[in-house]
Design goal:
By secondary structure, the chain is α+β, with helices and mostly antiparallel strands. 38% of the residues lie in helices and 30% in strands. It contains 21 helices and 26 strands. The longest helix is centred in the first third of the chain and has 23 residues.
Length: 664
């Protein structure tokens, strides 16, 4: 009977050969197997290399993970549970690789007592299709992980403006549950003033059939204030007809807040530019005034238009032209700062004024602060803060994204990441992440291996803030970073996705704004604004007993009138120097032109009197016609917190004014 099936299998082989399939005949009782040439070709072996053919030959070639699948299917066939056997399994190729095949068969002869005798079947090579299927599945999982872990909101909507898809970032950023948003109009979540703008935005996409961008609009946060967003979107086509929109939205609230603060600061500087008694100007690379303030007009008598229409050197004394040209060249082309340079400017009446000035380069301009020292009328500010001339733009580049395998070897990197770290994709692929992504926290190196290990172990994203990235060119930038695992369909971590962005400028601008708002430019003491902010720290019970010291420079107006404001500024600085030298405190304030306030932790009044004596001593050693400095001094000693701090300041002021009478 086995021979008859061998003969039958030869006829079967003619048919399967036409199908380019392998065939097999299995004598279940003897465990022998007969296969055709195509069966062998699929796995790269010759007949001689595998003989004798038994069921063990099959078992040894099948992937261990697939063997049970095959055995289960065969058992169902043998036990009459199914009439046909078909499974997808991997077989070991001679070259060591695994080949996917479709193994199909059935029992064609049974014994009289119902035992299976002979089974026949085919092998079809499905390796290419299977690999393509697995690759597609991986790419689908990979894309899903990126979408779910990016901080940007990815959305789709129909032509009526109803959301048909939203990424998890919507709920993470705005707290609205997705089920309350999907299939609802975007208008319910947009600021009323911005709805018309967004309607026009989507209308433009529909009418132009092209990608569009919108730089700023507001979305409603479930629990908080309105959040600022920017978006870009493109039309979705079906059979050549637009059926909706797909887009991405990014939260720019922090940037808008910082920009608003900067704009406010710029406006303040503009006001100061116009009202300052200093000679302020912005000069272009050709030596023309680009912008000047009224002080130039008041001093020289020319109109602003006359001053801007002629080169600076035409207003100079002829003996100063050569040196001034050299100075301008150093500032513009060599980017050097110039300070304390003096030259003579001719006024409309032919008189020359000696002007001392300082110049700082910035881009194609240099910024000038000058003062007329001819009449010794100097502006109390010796340097105006530079106003940056740029229009802050929104970040047009998306977050940097780097993908690694589970060992931290880079498998993908996007264009934004290339730009941020300085490495091209071809340089980065196949390298350990640590070789191109060098990060520090609080100046200490952070091991990426530890971060990756934590994410893999806990199987959840990790956000990292306040870290420094060392780029390819040894430059440093502050970044925000999130690291998230990539899962396969069995919820096993197969890699890591890192999403990061440059926040260096945001942090720098925040520090600049904070410093400018709290300090007096002349003495580096805190200003009155900071007093209101820090008063709660001072009235903390641990700070008591407390000494409140009020001081006032005597006859400062007379010094300014008789000697000029530069002498007055010198007196103020000298007073601040003596005060700081003799008082151990973290709380020094200049609260007026000639007024100072100091809070000091004091166990008794003796210390406050001792401070007064030491200040009088140092002032007496400093006093001269060149420095006619004297200070009125008053204090109040507060043992308990039951005295209102502002009442304490009034008492200290009152005592100071009593002391001031002695100097009249």
């Amino acid at each position: 009977m086995w021979r008859e099936y061998i003969h039958s299998s030869e006829q079967l082989n003619i048919m399967v050969d036409a199908m380019n399939a392998g065939s097999w005949v299995w004598n279940i009782q003897s465990r022998d197997i007969m296969v055709n040439q195509r069966w062998l070709e699929i796995i790269g072996y010759s007949k001689d290399e595998l003989e004798p053919f038994t069921i063990d030959t099959w078992i040894n070639l099948v992937h261990p993970e697939d063997l049970k699948i095959s055995e289960d299917a065969l058992n169902k066939l043998i036990n009459h549970e199914t009439d046909f056997y078909s499974v997808e399994v991997r077989m070991k190729h001679k070259n060591g690789s695994w080949v996917w095949i479709l193994d199909s068969g059935k029992v064609v002869e049974w014994s009289s007592n119902g035992q299976p005798m002979i089974a026949i079947g085919t092998h079809i090579d499905i390796n290419d299709n299977k690999e393509l299927q697995l690759k597609y599945k991986y790419n689908e999982i990979f894309l899903k992980q990126i979408i779910e872990n990016t901080k940007d909101i990815i959305y789709r909507m129909d032509l009526q403006g109803n959301f048909t898809y939203l990424s998890p970032a919507w709920t993470k950023n705005l707290k609205h549950p997705l089920h309350q948003v999907l299939n609802h109009s975007f208008k319910a979540f947009v600021h009323p003033e911005d709805i018309h703008m967004l309607e026009d935005f989507f209308s433009n996409i529909k009418n132009s059939s092209q990608h569009q961008e919108l730089t700023k609009f507001r979305l409603k946060h479930l629990d908080g204030p309105w959040r600022y967003y920017q978006t870009s979107a493109s039309p979705i086509f079906e059979n050549g007809i637009i059926i909706g929109y797909a887009g991405i939205a990014r939260d720019i609230s922090d940037y808008v807040s910082i920009n608003q603060q900067l704009q406010a600061q710029v406006k303040e500087l503009d006001v100061f530019f116009e009202v300052s008694l200093d000679l302020l100007a912005i000069v272009d690379s050709k030596g023309f005034f680009y912008r000047i303030n009224q002080s130039w007009v008041d001093l020289l008598g020319y109109s602003i238009e006359e001053l801007k229409s002629r080169p600076i050197i035409e207003f100079l004394h002829e003996d100063d032209i050569k040196m001034t040209k050299s100075i301008i060249d150093n500032v513009i082309h060599k980017k050097k700062e110039i300070a304390d340079y003096i030259n003579r400017y001719r006024s409309i009446d032919g008189q020359y004024h000696y002007i001392e000035w300082k110049a700082i380069p910035y881009g194609e301009f240099f910024y000038v602060s000058g003062r007329d020292i001819t009449s010794e009328v100097q502006i109390k500010k010796d340097l105006i803060n530079q106003k940056k001339h740029y229009e802050a733009t929104l970040m047009s580049v998306g977050d940097g994204i780097i993908v690694t395998d589970i060992l931290g070897v880079i498998t993908n990197i996007n264009k934004a990441a290339e730009k941020l770290i300085g490495f091209k994709q071809k340089e980065a692929l196949g390298k350990p992440l640590s070789s191109i992504f060098d990060i520090y926290r609080n100046k200490h190196f952070t091991k990426l291996e530890d971060i990756i290990s934590k994410v893999v172990k806990e199987k959840k994203p990790l956000e990292i803030h306040d870290i420094t990235l060392n780029t390819k060119f040894s430059s440093y930038m502050q970044i925000d970073d999130s690291v998230a695992p990539i899962f396969d369909d069995e919820n096993q971590v197969t890699g890591i996705v890192i999403v990061f962005r440059d926040v260096t400028k945001e942090l720098e601008n925040k520090k600049k704004i904070e410093y400018l708002s709290y300090h007096d430019y002349l003495t580096d003491f805190y200003n009155r604004y900071y007093l209101e902010k820090v008063v709660n720290e001072i009235i903390d019970a641990s700070f008591y007993p407390l000494g409140i010291i009020s001081m006032d420079i005597n006859d400062l107006k007379s010094v300014n009138d008789n000697y000029g404001h530069s002498k007055g500024d010198y007196i103020i600085k000298k007073a601040a120097e003596i005060i700081r030298k003799n008082i151990d405190s973290d709380y020094f304030f200049r609260i007026g032109g000639d007024e100072f306030l100091v809070f000091v932790h004091s166990k008794n009044k003796v210390l406050l009197e001792e401070i007064h004596k030491n200040i009088i001593r140092d002032i007496s050693q400093t006093y001269s016609e060149e420095c006619p400095l004297s200070l009125a001094y008053g204090y109040v000693y507060v043992e308990k917190t039951d005295l209102d701090i502002y009442e304490g300041i009034k008492l200290a002021d009152s005592n100071m004014y009593e002391n001031k009478k002695k100097y009249k």
